[in-house]
Design brief:
There is one protein chain. With 221 residues, the chain is of the alpha/beta class. It has a single domain, classed as Rossmann fold. A seven-stranded mixed sheet has the order 3-2-1-4-5-7-6, sandwiched between helices. It is globular and about 40 Å long.
């Protein structure tokens, strides 16, 4: 008989790994995410293995992107689920994560989906690309974990070509970690003219009803 693995709530587990400001300590982060790589996709919104959840994310994310083929970087891509989703839609996607086991799984997904996407090990707070390389910078549940969120955000904005789009999917989870939408919007508006907040309270996105704040902030200018 198959053994059923428990689904890990990474936001809850991470509570013991964050600073007083609710951000993950940099020295522990890579080790922490690597240790959970094998179970990461068990969360419905991580693996998108349920077609209904995958369709919900496709309906949310793909209309936010410029026309195909746009150059997209998925920073803190984890196991590459959104990297593959965007590549399947025809976009030119690069993914980066500093957890080697996550990157290995992401590369396996890219190969299995028979799409073209580059996924590399690296620090999302200091990516290697030149200024103006991408039409879209996407992060999902990454900004909250940055030791210096504003410095990371400034770096991400610098990666955008003129007219490029910033897409930040974040949350303030019931476990106490994360960052509120008002705080992220304020941060974005220090550097950009637009910070549009969309609340992500549709249970279809998460595979279950939620009772905390989850949202996406988009900035086109």
């Amino acid at each position: 008989m198959d053994t059923v693995r428990p689904v890990v709530d990474f936001a809850v587990v991470a509570r013991s790994r964050v600073s007083g400001a609710g951000r993950m300590e940099a020295m522990l982060a890579s080790e922490y995410w690597d240790s959970g790589a094998a179970e990461f996709d068990d969360r419905p919104d991580h693996g998108l293995q349920d077609p209904a959840v995958r369709d919900a994310w496709a309906r949310l994310l793909l209309p936010m992107l410029p026309p195909v083929p746009s150059r997209v970087v998925d920073l803190g891509c984890g196991t590459g689920t959104l990297t593959v989703l965007m590549a399947q839609a025809g976009h030119l996607v690069s993914g980066m994560d500093f957890a080697p086991r996550m990157v290995a799984l992401a590369r396996e997904k890219v190969a299995a989906a028979d799409v073209v996407a580059d996924v590399a090990v690296g620090d999302a707070s200091s990516p290697p690309w030149k200024s103006g390389t991408f039409d879209v910078v996407l992060t999902r549940h990454v900004l909250w974990a940055m030791p210096d969120p504003e410095a990371a955000l400034t770096t991400w904005i610098d990666l955008l070509a003129p007219g490029g789009r910033l897409i930040l999917i974040e949350g303030r989870w019931s476990s106490g970690v994360g960052v509120a939408s008002a705080d992220v919007a304020e941060l974005v508006l220090r550097h950009r003219r637009e910070a549009e907040v969309t609340i992500l309270d549709d249970p279809a996105l998460w595979g279950t009803p939620i009772n905390d704040e989850r949202y996406v902030i988009t900035s086109r200018c």
